[in-house]
């Protein structure tokens, strides 16, 4: 069988399970509104949680940065790609995390996927055991596969199961690796208790705060600020393509850990540095995140979350036969668990007909039988926007119930 026949058979199998993924082209727009096929859609799917990507100050800063630094960085950071803008970003982040990690220092990456690969593969050597939370993001799972460490998975948020695994480990270095906010469920990892376990068993805690950075904590510094944590055992990964409205990522940790990443993380050493104009604009983004605009957007997110959850609970009550449910989420990620793959895609299609873009998420991204609408809120959504979503969902639910 040729490779093309082999792949065609695999593609047919994906399609038979209603699992084909499709790229949708946005012709213009920024969250929460974009135009697709000439139709304006109200989006509940962007991770641009504060709506910063649309801020004129960000576009101005990119233009200013490009005039000063040009387009790309031209080389990896250790060759010639490291600019004063890159350094100002990591200096700011080191200052932000100083209250949470003694001797904090930060290092930048082009994406969160890269940052996770770097930290887990560089620290996860033969002497190490990685304790990986069951619902971790794909990039952490891939990173653990690539590391030379032993990998042990523990069930979601189940510290009673993690404890004996840590106790039984004979590894010289133990790394507990977890998302802070789970990307498909929206719930928070029990970070204070994980840190206690890390202290008890001399382990280190790698926290992927992709969905907490900018959103959680009074100043938007994420889950460490939210929980008021401080420990040299904390190794924080933050991403800058979501609430920061741009792109990139960072690791903030004790200076010795960061220095080791600089010396040893292959995807830091062998990959072109991010464009300096983006780094320059990140400085503006950081000012917005910690200033009054960021605070107002975070307050609006909390209000819209409450409105959405109340509405979704009422919807589930009206249509018990559909068997829909919510997760235990107190973040802008508010999934509606529907169950079947075909059902969730039909629901997403019905919402799109009503002018709303909400993605259906299916296995293998989530467990079989838990396909869901992944509703995400943006700090610029209005009360009327959330009402529009709830009204369209009520209509779609009534139609699905009739058809069932
Ligand atoms: N970690 C988590 C929890 C994520 O949700 C994502 C992105 N979806 C990443 C890491 C990867 O970040 P990036 O998109 O910057 O590569």
Structure description:
The structure is a single chain. The chain is an alpha/beta fold. The protein folds into 2 domains: 145 residues, Aspartate Aminotransferase, domain 1 (Alpha-Beta Complex); 235 residues, Aspartate Aminotransferase, domain 2, CATH 3.40.640.10. Helices cover 45% and strands 19% of the residues. A 7-stranded mixed sheet has the order 4-10-9-8-7-5-6, with helices on both faces. The protein has a 4-stranded mixed sheet with strand order 1-2-3-13. A 4-stranded antiparallel sheet has the order 11-12-15-14. Helix 9 links the parallel strand 8 and strand 9. The protein binds 4'-deoxy-4'-aminopyridoxal-5'-phosphate. The site of 4'-deoxy-4'-aminopyridoxal-5'-phosphate has 14 residues, from helix 5.
